[in-house]
Amino acid sequence: MGIVILFGALIIALIIGSIVLIFIRRYRKTGIWMLCTLVSLIILTAVYVYFPRHFKRNYLQKEHEWSGLAFRRYADSLNFYIGAIPAGISLSDPRFSENFNSVTPENALKMGPLLKDFKVGEYDFSQADMLVNQALEKNLRVRGHTLVWGKQADMFKSPDLRYWLENFPEGERSSILQKAIENHIITVLDHFRGRIHVWDVVNEPMSMINKGKLENNVFLKYLGEEYIPGAFQIAHSADPDLKLFLNENLISYTDKTAGAFLKLVKKLKDNNIPIAGVGIQAHIGSRRDTSVADLRNFLEKITSMGLEVEITEMDARLRLFSGADDPYEAQGKYYARILRTCLDIPLCTGLTFWGFSDNRSWEDSMSVFFPRPNEPYLFDRDMNPKPAYYHVYKTLKLEHEARKGSL
Ligand code: G3I
Q: What spacing in Å lies between the alpha carbon of 108 and ligand 1's midpoint?
């Protein structure tokens, strides 16, 4: 993301420079030539990046030995959580409840959607209760996502806590925010007590832009770094039986941000903060962050601290596999490698896909950053199982048989 911003700034600087040259008689021709070249480059790049690509769905012509079979039973036998978000699918649909044993509500448990008209301190749990109760009817584990997320409670978001705090004198804002977030955590955990046993207490504390730094959100501004351990302590006091996770979206598992994140986790652990695990989102948006070896090393660094780890928001855009003979097959094999990696690490207890079918993908709603086709999930836009489905099925089935054989 940082490189994209730098490149964008360079292009803008060159365009401004060429326009300035045009206004200097002596350099007018050079300026016009520069501007035309830059504009042509931008148009050609945009056409290449955004030109719709269509990949042949070879899997529709193939017979699959496992068609019509489901993989939840294997995950259950492994005491492993294989999950998805209920995007465009009902939890009572067997294609969900017979394949997955875990569900993460995409938005229903976030601060904004739980607040009535986004008013701080006023709650409407009706939508969330419907979803959570439906999950429990299907004996699905619910991942609570998420109690404290600076990026979604800040400027121009709902709720916009930074704007809300301006109703109060500057000197009182920190204590008012502290009380508000305490009330939020306690209210939500009390409401779902006994129904949700694991929560992403803090989501995405790291900055996506300032490498190695914490996100400069409203919580950091008014409460300092202590907002992170503080949230865990409030959650633990509210319900000591909960598994409390820190959830993060890392683009690389070897850069400064990854290193700083590990230091943050270690500091929480060393200070006896009640953290049970770490969620690694694994949104694979660009070719750079597709290294399974780096992911394995990173997951093992976390579990070496005695913490659980879950892959919490898995998706790998189809376009990243455009160089393969069959991108759908390559995507499936990639997911199989990620799932295999998690199954090989005893404290890696779950993998959740951040979608169900290609009909609904958060990347499609941000296609300026994620040019289509994204098509990241296990079912295609017509709800056909994709190779990704069969590779997940096969990986879980083989692991089940291997462990059964070793008993
Ligand atoms: O429901 C309202 C609707 O009433 C309103 O008309 C519309 C107008 O904007 O907004 C709708 O809410 C949107 C919501 O998704 C439901 O569609 C929010 O604006 C939009 O910001 C929200 O986006 C979600 C995003 O998190 C921010 O909360 C995405 O669906 C969701 O996939 C995405 O998921 C995040 C994880 O929570 C954390 N990790 C990254 C991941 C992808 O960004």
A: 10
Residue 172 belongs to a domain: yes
Domain span including residue 40: 2-48
Q: How many domains does the chain fold into?
A: 2
Residues 149, 152, 158, 161: is their CA dihedral positive or negative? positive
- The reply to whether 8 and 34 lie within a common domain is yes
Angle between helices 2-22 and 28-50 (to 10 degrees): 150
- For residue 228, the CA-to-ligand 1 centroid distance in Å is 23
Does residue 325 have a pLDDT over 60? yes
Give the pLDDT score at 296: 97
Q: Are 69 and 48 in contact (CB under 8 A)?
A: no
Q: Averaged over 316-338, what is the pLDDT?
A: 95
Amino acid at 347: L
Around ligand 1, the residues with Cβ closer than 6 Å are 106-107, 110, 152, 203, 249, 281, 313, 362
Compute the average pLDDT of residues 245-257. Answer: 95
Cβ-Cβ contacts under 8 Å for 18 (sequence gap 6 or more): 31, 32, 34, 35, 38
Pocket test for ligand 1, best of 104, 107, 155, 315 (most atoms within 8 A of CB): 107
Domain membership of residue 53 (yes or no) is no
Q: Are residues 76 and 222 in the same domain?
A: yes
Find residue 203's DSSP bridge partners. 247
Q: Which residue lies with its CA nearest to atom 2 of ligand 1?
A: 113
Q: Which helix (H) or strand (E) holds 144?
A: strand 141-148
- Residues composing the chain: 407
Closest CA to 332 of 299, 380, 367, 296: 380
Answer yes or no: are the C-beta atoms of 343 and 395 closer than 8 Å.
Answer: yes
What is the DSSP secondary structure assignment for residue 118, as one 8-state letter?
A: G
Q: Is 204 a catalytic residue?
A: yes
Whether the bond between 159 and the residue before it is cis, its omega within 30 degrees of 0, is yes
Q: Is 341 within the bounds of a domain?
A: yes
Position 208 pLDDT exceeds 70: yes
Pairing of strands 308-316, 277-280: parallel
Q: How many A from CA of 245 to the centre of ligand 1?
A: 21
pTM for this model (two decimals) = 0.91
Predicted local distance difference test score (pLDDT) of residue 130: 98
What mean pLDDT is predicted for residues 203-207? 98
Query: Looking at residues 340-359, what average pLDDT do you find?
Result: 98
Same-domain pairing of 179 and 228 = yes
Nearest alpha carbon, ligand 1 atom 14: 107
